[in-house]
UniProtKB/TrEMBL annotation:
UniProt keywords, alphabetically: Membrane, Transmembrane, Transmembrane helix
Organism domain of life: Bacteria
Domain NfeD-like C-terminal: 408-462
Residue span, NfeD integral membrane domain: 276-388
Renumbered residue ranges of the record's region Disordered: 134-171
Biased composition, class Basic and acidic residues, residue ranges: 141-160
Stored SUPFAM superfamilies: ClpP/crotonase, NfeD domain-like
Name recorded for this polypeptide: Nodulation protein NfeD
Domain NfeD1b N-terminal: start-end pairs: 33-132
Membrane protein topology class: Multi-pass membrane protein
Species: Aromatoleum evansii
Primary localization: membrane
Length: 476
């Protein structure tokens, strides 16, 4: 009997273990589906918006988060921050490239690969995931062969040529960046069971696919024309989360909540514009300079400090080349110095050159949405030079004008003698009574010209009877 009981217990444990091991995936009970809309460049504002809304969706126990995306790409740091949040998300993340005509290029391709479910609308595309370096020599994709050939030719013609070495360094750095990006996208493809072959070509060859081609190649999971169709096609699909749990989606009757970018994201997106940051930096430098040269007003100093701090915060958000920032500041200082130092244009020209070169070094113009056009830089430099020239011209004209206030202004003006005593003489000058001293005898009513000052005593000389010498005199 005892053996039979133990045998039955062992059999029950085996059956229980089998049932537990093969239990069906837990189904989400409809619930709420949160839809985040991301249009435009992937930047610091986008990653901050996604992280905050993901936390909020989890806090209110949403069943699913859908990332509706249309992007030309963006910054690598912001993209990786979003992907880290997706991989560690406590709820399923679906990325849908839509509506029709949208795209998930560059950084968008990485995010699509990282999502638990990848979907696209008809007439959309993804790919072109070749990384673009910022502030790095040889940063343009697709021209490796040309650069290598040029470097080889330079090396053959001039052994040890520095230009060839620089090109070789740039090529090596870009090759490292591409290898890293290819391995990263390939690892995401392996994690989600998607095509690693296209991942490799998207990085190394900037390959792109349409939605139909992507579905046939195993890059995405489904095609849906709009959100209602997406909800129907997601219903019943199983996804595996980062903590090992498997969930079956139940979205056919789910409540869909669409969340648009809030004021915080719009403000961060505005500050993440390098052109605005550049303008704010110039305003801050000029305003602080004006405050230092004309102290006491206060408003330029306060406004300039605010603009400069906001510009530095914007640069901190962006992966800028700080050598470019330093050149921009140097260029602005040199252009300001041109208005006050007798450099005969050398400082001004040097400032314009430093400003334009610094702007070119600041950001890579091929980074989508984050480039600074050369025309913008030249226009801003010319406008700054014109402003500085106008200020310098105004200062020069002011310097040539006669003095109209203070002790120095009294020299040459006319006064009228009012009192003459044994202790000295007094005269009325500009409505004030002054002690006067003269080498010639004075009498009350005499008109005199002020020739200088000795402390609080005016040095004067009598006027002749010539009416031409009486111009500008004060009334007796």
């Amino acid at each position: 009997m005892r053996r039979t009981i133990w045998a039955l217990l062992a059999l029950a444990l085996l059956i229980l273990g089998f049932l537990l091991h093969n239990r069906p995936a837990a189904a989400t009970t409809g619930g709420e589906v949160v839809v985040l809309r991301i249009d435009g460049v992937i930047g610091p504002a986008t990653s901050d918006f996604f992280a905050r809304e993901l936390r909020r969706a989890h806090a209110r126990q949403a069943a699913l988060l859908v990332l509706a995306m249309d992007t030309p790409g963006g910054l690598d740091t912001s993209m990786r921050a979003i992907i880290k949040d997706i991989l560690a998300a406590p709820l399923p993340i679906v990325t849908w490239v839509g509506p029709e005509g949208a795209r998930a290029a560059s950084a968008g391709t990485y995010i699509l690969y990282a999502s638990h479910v990848a979907a696209m609308a008809p007439a959309t595309n993804l790919g072109a995931a070749t990384p673009v370096a910022i502030g790095m020599p040889g940063g343009k994709p697709g021209d490796d062969t040309t650069r290598k050939d040029k470097a080889d030719d330079n090396t053959k013609e001039r052994d040890g040529n520095s230009a060839g070495d620089a090109a070789g360094i740039g090529d090596s750095m870009m090759e490292k960046v591409r290898n890293d990006a290819a391995a990263y996208l390939r690892s995401l493809a392996q994690l989600r069971g998607r095509s690693g072959d296209f991942a490799e070509r998207a990085v190394r060859e900037a390959a792109s696919l349409s939605s139909e081609e992507a579905l046939a190649a195993g890059v995405i999971d489904l095609i849906a024309a709009d959100l209602p169709e997406l909800m129907k096609k997601l219903d019943g699909r199983e996804v595996k989360l980062g903590d090992g749990r498997t969930q079956r989606l139940s979205t056919a009757a789910a409540t869909v909540t669409q969340i648009a970018p809030d004021w915080r994201m719009r403000l961060l997106a505005l500050l993440s514009n390098p052109q605005l940051a550049l303008v704010l930096m110039m305003i801050g430098i000029y305003a602080l300079f004006f405050e230092f040269t004309s102290p006491g007003f206060g408003v330029p100093g306060v406004a300039g400090a605010i603009c400069l701090l906001v510009a530095l915060y914007a640069f901190q958000l962006l992966p800028v080349n700080w050598a470019g920032v330093a050149l921009l500041a140097l260029g602005a200082i040199l252009m300001l110095a041109e208005a006050f130092l007798p450099s005969f244009g050398a400082l001004g020209v040097g400032g314009i050159v430093a400003f334009v070169v610094g702007g070119l070094f600041l950001m890579d113009t091929e980074a989508p949405g984050f480039g600074i056009p050369l025309a913008f830089l030249i226009g801003l430099a010319i406008a700054s030079a014109l402003v500085i020239g106008a200020v310098g011209s105004f200062a020069a004209r002011t310097r040539r004008r006669p003095i109209v206030s203070g002790r120095e202004q009294m020299a040459g003006t006319i006064a009228t003698v009012t009192t003459v005593t044994a202790e000295g003489a007094w005269a009325l000058a500009q409505g004030e009574s002054w002690r006067v001293r003269s080498a010639s005898p004075l009498a009350p009513g005499d008109r005199v010209r002020i020739t200088g000052l000795d402390g609080l005593t005016l040095l004067v000389e009598p006027l002749t009877a010539d009416p031409a010498n009486r111009r500008g005199g004060s009334p007796p």
